[in-house]
Design brief:
alpha/beta, D-Maltodextrin-Binding Protein, domain 2, 12 helices, signal
């Protein structure tokens, strides 16, 4: 609180009246300021995924950074089925930020999109995890078997369904279950399914935990990248899972870029700040999960087919060397 002005020594009556008037004015301003309710913080809800997967770890770390460094903003994470649900939540205004695989987005967005890009983050690699004592050695061995393809609304479900399609494994030839990552691991442990598919950044902690305690293998899917590109989307690429990640035989698999997306309604200066923190706090984000630390400014702008938010464009232009 500002101090009252000191009395004027030896002042005249008019001077004393002026001093009194000034005091009243100060009190009026202070009373008015105290009466005003505090401004509501801006909510930033980040749609993530399973608590056992990368999106959630990444989102939790980003929330901590945002709340620490942007005054007047209150960020939080939402646990979701992941990509497809995240896109829907941001589109509908039920979340402000979200993570999604590129293949979940339409190839050719039309009109004014409700969702825009902040950055391309890293690649999700598709894992087909099976028990080492089980019958699955290649993708075709899933015929007449039971496999989890991820929960409804997840990017895994989309990629896995496309993979089974290009491999000629029709819905009638494979018993598919739509289980989350934790439920998939539990079901495979109990022998209730023959394998599960999951798309995530390396390493997927739930997969790492499973293979530490159960003899397992990851199936090579590299031969299916080109069929997926030809039938569905050019976003698919082949990536290796080296033996150093899980301590298993190295394989090649299908990979899919993923993006951080944002509501098109979010103010330009705020998205600038969010993009700045994403890029400038990569070391801290990488401590939450190694995949989060692999972001680069060179690849971050490649969010096609999704346009970048103008606030993100402003940051990338300003940060050019």
């Amino acid at each position: 609180m500002a101090p009252f002005p000191p009395p004027l020594v030896g002042s005249s009556r008019s001077a004393r009246r002026a001093t009194l008037a000034l005091c009243v004015a100060v009190l009026t301003v202070l009373a008015s300021a105290c009466a005003e309710p505090p401004a509501e913080p801006i909510r930033i809800r980040i749609a993530t995924g399973s608590p056992a997967a990368v999106y959630y770890a990444f989102g939790q770390s980003l929330v901590k950074i945002i709340n620490r460094e942007i005054p007047g903003v209150r960020a939080s994470v939402a646990i979701t089925a992941a990509s497809a649900e995240n896109v829907a939540l941001v589109s509908q205004g039920s979340a402000e930020l979200g993570f999604t695989q590129a293949d979940t987005l339409p190839n050719t967005p039309s009109g004014s999109p409700a969702v825009l890009g902040v950055a391309r983050l890293y690649d999700d690699l598709l894992h087909l995890v099976v028990r080492d004592d089980g019958p699955i050695h290649r993708l075709s061995d899933l015929r007449d078997r039971t496999v989890s393809v991820g929960p409804t609304g997840s990017g895994t479900e989309i990629t896995a369904s496309r993979l089974l399609d290009v491999a000629g494994l029709t819905p009638g030839s494979v018993d598919t279950r739509r289980l989350g990552l934790d439920a998939s691991v539990t079901a495979l442990n109990k022998g209730e399914i023959d394998g599960f598919l999951f798309s995530g950044g390396l390493p997927v902690q739930a997969v790492a935990g499973f293979v530490r305690h159960t003899p397992a293998r990851i199936i090579d899917l590299g031969e299916w990248t080109e069929p997926l590109r030809q039938r569905y989307s050019q976003v698919y690429v082949s990536r290796d899972i080296p033996s150093s990640v899980y301590g298993l035989a190295p394989v090649t698999t299908v990979a899919d870029p993923n993006y951080l997306i944002v509501s098109a309604k979010l103010p330009r200066p705020l998205v600038y700040e969010l993009t700045r923190l994403l890029m400038e706090r990569r070391v801290e984000l990488g401590q939450a999960h190694p995949a989060a630390g692999r972001i680069s400014t060179q690849s971050a702008i490649a969010t096609a087919p999704l346009p970048l938010h103008p606030g993100a464009v402003d940051y990338y232009r300003a940060s050019k060397p």
